[in-house]
UniProtKB/TrEMBL annotation:
Gene coding for it: TBC1D32
Compartment(s): Cell projection, Cilium; Cytoplasm
CC terms in the record's Gene Ontology section: cilium; cytoplasm
The protein's name in its UniProt record: Protein broad-minded
Gene3D superfamilies, A to Z: Ypt/Rab-GAP domain of gyp1p, domain 3 (1.10.472.80)
The keyword Endoplasmic reticulum is annotated on this UniProt entry: no
Domain BROMI N-terminal, chain residue ranges per copy: 12-132
UniProt keyword list: Cell projection, Cilium, Cytoplasm, Developmental protein
Amino acid sequence: MAHFSCEDEAMLQAMLRQLFQSVKEKITGGGPPWECAEEILLRLEETDEISTSKIHICNTLGSMIEEEMEKCTSEQNQSEESGYDTVVQHVTKRTQESKEYEEMMHSLKNVMMVVVESMINKFEEDEIRSQERQKKILKEKSNSYCTDNCSDSDSSFNQSYKFCQGKLQLILDQLDPGQPKEVRYDALQTLCSAPPSDVLNCENWTTLCEKLTLCLSDPDPVFSDRILKFYAQTFTLSPLHMTKEIYISLAKYLELYFLSRENHIPTLSTGIDITNHNMISLLKKIRLLNEYQKEAPSFWIRHPEKYMEEIVESTLSLLSVKHDQSHLVSQKILDPVYFFALVDTKAVWFKKWMHAYYSRSAVLRLLEKKYKSLITTAVQQCVQYLELCETMRADEISEHSKPCGNKQKIVYYSGQELQYIYFIHSLCLLGRLLIYTQGRKLFPIKLKNKKDSVSLTDLLVLFTQLIYYSPSCPKMTSSAHSENYSPASMVTEVLRILCDQKECAVECLYNNTVVETLLQPVHNLMKGSEVAPNCSETALIHIADILARIASVEEGLILLLYGENVNSSEEESPTGAHIIAQFSKKLLDEDISIFSGSEMLPVVKGAFISVCRQIYGTCEGLQVLLPYSLHESIAKAWKRTSLLSERVPTPVEGSDSVSSVSQESQSTMAWEENLLDDLLNFACHSQRIATSSKKQVAINECVTFMFNRYAKKLQISRQKKFGYGVLVTQVASTAAGAVALQNSGFISALITELWSNLECGRDDVRVTHPRSTPVDPIDRSCQKSFLALVNLLSSPAVCELVGNQELPNKVEYSLREDIIDRLIILNSEAKICSLFNYEQSHIFGLRLLSVVCCDLDTLLLLEAQYQVSRMLLHAQEENTLETSESHRDFIIDGLSVERNHILVRINLIGGPSERILPPRMLEKGDDPYPWPMFSSYPLPLCYLPEVIKNTDIKQGKIFTIKCYIIFNSVILEMHYHVSFLTFNILIILLFITALVELLEKFVLHLTENPSECYFPSVEHTATDANVKNESLSSVQQLGIKLTVRYGKFLNLLKDGAENDLALVLKHCERFLKQQKVPVNYAGHDWFVSSLFLIMLGDKEKTLQFLQHFSRLLTSAFLWLPRLHISRYLPIDTIESGIHPIYFCSAHYIEMLLKAEVPLVCSAFHMSGFAPSQICLQWISQCFWNYLDWIEICHYIATCVFLGPDYQVYICIAIFKHLQQDILQHTQTQDLQVFLKEEALHGFRVSDYFEYMEILEQNYRPVLQRDMRNIRVQST
């Protein structure tokens, strides 16, 4: 079958159609194309087409192949080579070389060409018929089809397979301006209906693009609009490389349009009438371009960089177009940038282009190399507007801002309004440019008619001056309008963004020139004159906003506090912080009469108080602002406002004054709350809460305000990131604060919340399912309440809240009562039966008792009033099981294990290596709790370390001579200035015997020098007989027993020491009564007890040392009863009852902690705990239970020999030592419990001498200055 008949050709054509259809279905049916192609090839032989081809090949070449096979087989039998593959290769080669094969391939090729040509012709016929049908359908539709729907997703659904070249050429001819209108409309409609990708991929696209560009100038607005809709359709549906061509063509058209002299572009004097057809058409083109500018950054990163660069360059080229300027500004022809500012006033397109580095780098590179004039004109526009503001009246300038702030529809923009809109556009563009480093490198800018270039600082000064020179809105409402285009608001928005970028703010804003410009109106107002005729309350509010943002960053705060030159004299040039404080004080005291009676005055006051809050929110800022007594001015302003709110008349129904009275009342109440909020914020540091308490500055009202916000579930303050923990801790650390918390209802609310979580749930919540059984000793639902109580129950708070109160011991109990009587001391059946979850609730109470009793003064108070240890022992005795007649075993459960831990903790005094506390957790194995329990004293010996039990602390006299040599050669000659190397050797060599004599001689030597004596000498002539009959409080008596027990444990005291210590304490009370108000110290005197142990129980040496030591400044900070309500303190301090250790030492601990160990400082804030509280606990009990005895001696000796400021340095060293543990327990949310319960493992004073020497060099002048200012100076 060498030739094909007509029937064969028809059959072959049908089979090819079938083959193409099957392949199309498989490829378009889903799945990766390469997998579909592979499957088609593998299954190709199964098709009918291949089967027919096999039959044709067999009929043509079959006989020849069989002959060749026989020949090859016979030849292989005679030769040694054999194999099927060899035969196949040989036969295939012979067949391909044969004449029959050549004829068959020639015939097959000819018939395939005929078949394919026939199929193509049939395809073109089908295509023409399909186009005719589509054209008929389109004609039947409305002429507005293209206008209403320009998406090619609808039109391409019925489009032909290919947009042919001939048809595109036809459209080009029909778009010619010489054609009739209907023909051109039809051509454009057909173009809009075609798929954009087909149009842009045609060979005639360049010609079409030129034709479309010409059509954009068509005077027919309908036709021009349809061209723009085609552009919009292309922007929406085409890929970037296609839309790029359209964008560039449109940008090029606009550039040529503005450069052409034939087009009537308006001038500044004529303005823009947006009802004019030409202006409407031009603005539509520019808006279309602008819309694409704002959308392009979202997808151009997925394409080659050259596409993006071409778009950027075409845009910058268009915006840089400049006309030949006339000498008269009014005759200036409007440049393209004016129209862009009109459609995108805030330069949103530039903001989006500068957002990502991908496009930002290209924009900045082109601006620097080719289009820097765009930045120059923007700066020039801002300079011109400022000059205009300086020379024109306020009412004239305000006309400029009308189009931007007016909600009414505007149809005409005057030249002045266009200048203002261009100014806003330039301002936003420059503000965005300054954010980035490469943008700032474009400065300085050289301007025309200006001798000096405009630097970054000059530009920021210009921006700042615009705030108070330019007009502002007449009144600032609480919710500013989202489209406020006033110059002051726009400049403030730009400066806010710059403040939020730290690197940018440091380079641009944080310098004296900018800050002085910001404060210039403030400075002038304090002198009684305005800096400019337009300086308003709104401008001051904007200035305060920027100042607050500057003060919120450390670099900005330092600039405000000290200026660029830290060593400059305050008298010569007061820094920003001083000016702000003085102005705020004058505002609060109403010493500035310019704004008197203004409705905006409270807002101005609040804005500048917010700046002060940012400044005194740090310890450094507080030191600078404290002399201005802002809290007193705030308190006075609050009192005046409170009286005004009481005098607001009651509105009468039907009166016209009802609304005005109501509005006035609301504003007064809001201002009153703001002032209370400011006072409350003032109390977030130890020195500030002490100052507030000393001055009796509305502490009760502030705490009540805080409780009201807490009850409403509001954040503690507008500017506080964390909760109420830190503030409650600070307030509760003073007696006055604890009373205020109780009176406000805050403590009752905490207890109510605790009972809700622990026992009964809230009354307003319906119980739908039983609560899950807690697994942890303190359930997660109660953890927050537990930590809140730990923060609250400091030693002063416990003394105020619990002191002299007996247990009710009722027969029946209701819900939500006292936690001590209900959860801790469960000494009756009625208390136990009143609890729903007895074990869980009692464990909560015992855990709280364990933490609270870590404060030894609190422990002694609870033991004196409630006999806590006796109650615990009795409970342990009842929790036993009789195993025989003479033996009883303790029942091991959660309560007995917790009680055993507390009993050991409260009865055994010692540092980390001086006592062993039993764990609270059971162990795995046969003996889950190997620690012996007990129900009577003494404690089992297993809780006493072997090293301590067998060690005599008192050493021989071998090292005493060396210590004397050091003392005589160094200490007496250097007068308080001991070198650290020498002192380190001294501490290592010191033992108790040597330490006693060294302390005595050192203190005696200092008291002989009048300059070293801080307090006057007071004679004490009382004898033992005089004081023997005086009584000691129950707390002091228990403290004596505890001290003697610890001294005997350390082998420092002998029998009879208890009476000697009692006499020492009685002598001290008699001695101190001569110097203070007759109010006894609530706690035990731990310093005297420590000194008694150091003196090895020698009563006479102890008293003699204390009499000399009381004259030194160090005694005020080591010996707490020394200055308790002492007459050497100011009267307000005496009235508040706050010790200098709180507002001086604790304050500087917080200050140094933020500077030296910032991570620990942040951890305290996140945990809602104040470092001052734990430091007060450490210092007040001389680190008993936290350090070993030798380290306690080192602590006392260090402070005596080196100065009282070392008390602060030691606490900072401890926090540095505990940093990793503090960070870990911050994550586990038990930092308070860890710091109070855990001893200071591994801390040695001598290990941190070098570090403390660095602290001394940096902070001693400031610390000693304030420490010496704690008492009333003699005149």
